[in-house]
Amino acid sequence: MEFNLLKDLVLLFGLALVTVVLFRKIRLPSIIGFLFTGIVAGPYALGLITDTHQVEQMAEIGVVLLLFTIGIEFSLKELLRIKHLVLWGGGVQVAVTIAVVALLGVGLGFSWQQSAFFGFLVSLSSTAILMKLLMDAGEMDSPHGKACLGILIFQDLCVVPLMLFTPFLGGAGNGVAGIVMVLGKALAVVVVAHFSARFAVPWIFNQVVKTRSRELFILTIIFVGFGTAFLTAQVGLSMALGAFIAGLAISESEYSHQVMGDIIPFRDAFISLFFISVGMLLDPATLVKHPMTVLLIIVAIILIKGVVASGAALILKFPPRPALISGLLLAQVGEFAFVLSQTGQKYGLLNGEQYQLFLAASVATMALTAVSVKFAEPLANKISSLLPAALKRGTRVSGVSHDRFPMEDHVVIVGFGVNGRNLARVLVANGISYIVIETNHHTVKAERKKGTQIIFGDASRPEILHHAMIEKARVMVVAISDATTTRRVVDQARSMRPTIHMIVRTRYVAEMEPLYQQGVNDVVPEEFETSVEIFSRVLRSYLVPHDQIESCINDIRRDSYQMFRSISRRHSHATGITGFLSGVELATFRVQPGSEVEGTQLRDGLLRERSGASVLVIRRGEEINSNPDPVWQFQAEDTVLVLGRAEQLAVTARLFEMTSLIHT
Question: For the chain, first and last CA: distance in Å?
Fold first, then answer.
């Protein structure tokens, strides 16, 4: 039996590899590829898999993990912060969609219980597909991206109560008393989860993190998630509810980002099985037998959800254009509707033929989402241009950021030891924002109490870097002592943000070349800097003059770092400005009161004659003057960007210092 399951998994994953690659080439989401894999391999097509029960059992693990990660992502604090966007937008969309579909179902002769259940199914959109498409298109921060996010959050939160009420629609409950009992159990579990989030879960993870064992950390995640799911199932609630509550409990701890990074590979593997198993349940003959019925269901879903979701965005005071785009993007059936549909079939709310019709229409609407992303904006522009001016107004131009530390053009500091702390202190003094990533939980706790923007986690995980908003950062500094981890961090960061300026601390000079090969911009070897500090202290003990020591340091650094830069250029594939700065550097100086350059003009030639360096940009207050005119006169507090060789910049620095300091 075990070998049969292994054979089935090998067949399914092998076929999925081929199918998903082909679907990605025609720019369709991977989920559609998984669904198609299931259709082809299932008993209604090629019949490669005859016993679908074991695959379905493993697919249930994917659903549990999906609810678990949704719980982690949506903490109670975050939900309260964006409550208007979620409750009004999502609440209107879900409630009105259920009502419209239910009325339509009753009008077509279905019972009110079935009609309401049809509304449950249609009200949910695909978070997995839509968020992936919006992220790939770079539209998560757009007004329609924020509107979709708010509505999707509410839909995901509604999954649990909808699953709780489905048995009662099927007549399996004990009326009002049964509903009150289930809600009472759910409330009790939520209360327990709340106190667990504050006390039990943090304590458990604190003990595990102290061991610094990655394997034990992952086992703890699985234990907390599946253990809570098992307990809720034992008291008569769904495993999905337990997984969601476990995620909520973890979301309130400082370990949530690392938990997310570790669990996502497992979730993605099992959720792919879920979509494959759904595909195996679809009979392609349904499309042949009832093509017009399937087409009408598809059109009805798109029209109802498109209009209702657009209306929800308009209620949130979005202008018509982003509201229409949001409606078009949300006009599909979501992955949780498949979970609900199987529950509904179990309780007699869907018969076999209705279930097949629903599956066929749902898969079609999911596939059409990729087309919607491409054509939603032109279509919305066309429709909004036909509206009168009075209807084009909207007071909300964007949504609410879901980032815990909203910022951009910042520095990402990996490691908060001596180097990281000193860098942070200097950045604060100069008004530059930063985010720290650290794996020592004691440091994270202590720094969070001080107000430091710090994240617990492994910076080689893409989810951790995403929470540090590396996509918006200008500089990344890796200040950890583990060479292997440093290389993993560099690889991941460069893949997520190719243009980021990356500075890495390393212990030995021998480690510099491999780092430059990976695309690091600057490497600072502690071995070399330690040698500089040693010989400077030796010279001081012999009472060698300070300026002579500085001259020796400059000579050593110039020669050595010139050699280091040649390594960098040898492995650099960039064709930007850095490729032309061979042997020269850029430096910034501030005109100090009483300095030699204060009051002089560029045409006087003092800077050029004395140092040989060239002025590129001058900033005075908020004014920035690139390639300044020769008549420009230097004033105190001007900031000047200069280009020159190391020895030229050393002379330039003295020209910008106060004259009294030079003589002393």
Answer: 87
159 in Cβ contact with 71 (< 8 Å): no
Q: Are 163 and 240 in contact (CB under 8 A)?
A: yes
Specify the DSSP element, H or E, that contains 504.
strand 501-506
405: nearest Cα among 360, 369, 454, 372? 454
Rounded distance, CA 457 to CA 630, Å? 52
| Contact call for residues 145 and 133 (beta carbons, < 8 A) | no
* Residue 663 in this model has a pLDDT that exceeds 50: no
For residue 45, give Cα distances in angstroms to 36, 210, 280, 281, 525.
Answer: 11, 52, 9, 10, 61
> Do residues 65 and 273 lie in contact, with contact meaning Cβ atoms separated by under 8 Å?
no
User: CA 573 → CA 338, 378, 568, 570, 576, distances in Å?
Assistant: 48, 38, 10, 8, 9
Distance, in Å, from the CA atom of 264 to the CA atom of 266, rounded to the nearest integer, reads 5
Q: Cα 476 vs. chain centroid, distance in angstroms? A: 17
Give the mean pLDDT of 447-459.
Answer: 85
pTM value is 0.59
Q: Provide the strand spans (E) within 96-171.
A: none
C-alpha–C-alpha distance, residues 385 and 373, integer Å: 19
pLDDT band of 66, cuts 50, 70, 90: confident
According to the model, what pLDDT value does residue 661 have? 47
What's the Cα-to-Cα distance from 515 to each of 13, 418, 488, 490, rounded to whole Å? 35, 22, 11, 8
DSSP state of 644: E
Asked whether the beta carbons of 527 and 507 are under 8 A apart, the reply is yes
- 254's tokens: 């400082």
Going by pLDDT thresholds of 50, 70 and 90, the confidence category of residue 435 is: very high
In 3D, which of 232, 229, 96, 228 has the Cα closest to residue 155?
Answer: 96
- CATH superfamily, domain 585-663, is Regulator of K+ conductance, C-terminal domain (3.30.70.1450)
* CB contact at 8 A, 16 and 37: yes
Q: How far apart (Å, rounded) are the C-alpha atoms in residues 650 and 611?
A: 8
At residue 446, the 3 state secondary structure works out as helix
Residues 569, 522 contacting (CB under 8 angstroms): no
Question: Considering only the top CATH level, what class is 411-574?
Answer: alpha beta
Q: What is the DSSP letter of 658?
A: B
Q: Residue 642 forms beta bridges with which residues? A: 587, 615
What are the tens digits of pLDDT across the range 338-357? 778 888 888 888 888 888 88
**What local confidence, expressed as pLDDT, does residue 398 receive?**
45
Cβ count within 10 A of residue 211: 10
Name which CATH class applies to 2-386: mainly alpha
Per the prediction, the chain carries an average pLDDT of 78
Question: Does residue 229 come out as left (phi exceeding 0), alpha (psi in the -120 to 50 range) or beta?
Answer: alpha
H or E stretch covering 546 = helix 546-571
CA distances from 357 to 53, 110, 287 (A): 22, 15, 8
Rounded Cα distance between 493 and 476, Å, is 8
Residue 474 is classified by DSSP as: S
Residue spans of the domains in the chain: they are 2-386, 411-574, 585-663
Q: Is 47 left (phi over 0), alpha (psi -120 to 50) or beta?
A: left
**What strands, in cross-sheet order, belong to the sheet with 639-644?**
585-590, 639-644, 614-620, 623-626
